[in-house]
Amino acid sequence: AEPLVEAWLKRKPEDVVFRRMPAIFTNPLWALHARAYYTAEALGIVDKIHRPLFDAIHKERRPMNTEKDIEAFFAEHGVDPETFRRTFHSFYVEAKVRQAREMTRRYGIDGVPSFIVDGKYRTSPRQAGGNLEVFKVIDFLIEKERKARKG
């Protein structure tokens, strides 16, 4: 679904804010991967590294099961290992991981990708009937909220 998310982001309305938040389920790898995402965010390289990391995990089936695996990946993308470790264990990253864990629980997210619209509606490809359909649902919910705000 990631290529479809990227395509939708190119055409989303300008007034719509899209915020990525890794879901964290019970498997410790979810928290490790979320920590990698927030490390990239803290370093200001999330746009540069998110897709390559996603592809490494999901397409190349490259092991990203330990902090060392992720550190090596970041090093391949120009991040100094000491900077990586300091950021990976920073208060900022820890707080963002806690927040992601709480939001996953609060919104009842049980799979990825899931989308929350205006803090009220949760949808996913499974709920919407497919990867393409989910974006139709998102667009519908955006319009519904626009109309509700206009009164």
State the gist of this model.
The chain has 151 residues and is mainly α. It contains 8 helices and 2 strands.
Any overview of this molecule?
- The structure is a single chain.
- This protein is mainly alpha-helical.
- The mean pLDDT is 96.
- Strands 1-2 form a two-stranded antiparallel ribbon.
- It contains 8 helices and 2 strands, in the order H-H-H-H-H-H-E-E-H-H.
- The termini are far apart.
- It is elongated.
Q: Which term fits the overall shape?
A: elongated
CATH architecture of the largest domain: 3-Layer(aba) Sandwich
As a percent range, the share of strand residues is: under 5%
Into how many domains do the coordinates divide? 2
Low-confidence stretches: none
The arrangement of helices and strands along the chain is: HHHHHHEEHH
**Which fold name corresponds to the CATH topology of the largest domain?**
Glutaredoxin
In the sheet with the most strands, the strands line up as 1-2
SSE layout:
Elements (H helix, E strand, L loop, with lengths): L1 H10 L16 H16 L2 H13 L8 H10 L4 H8 L2 H16 L8 E3 L3 E3 L1 H4 L2 H20 L1
Antiparallel strand pairs: 1-2
Features:
2 domains, single chain, mainly alpha, 151 residues, 64% helix, two-stranded antiparallel ribbon, Glutaredoxin, 8 helices
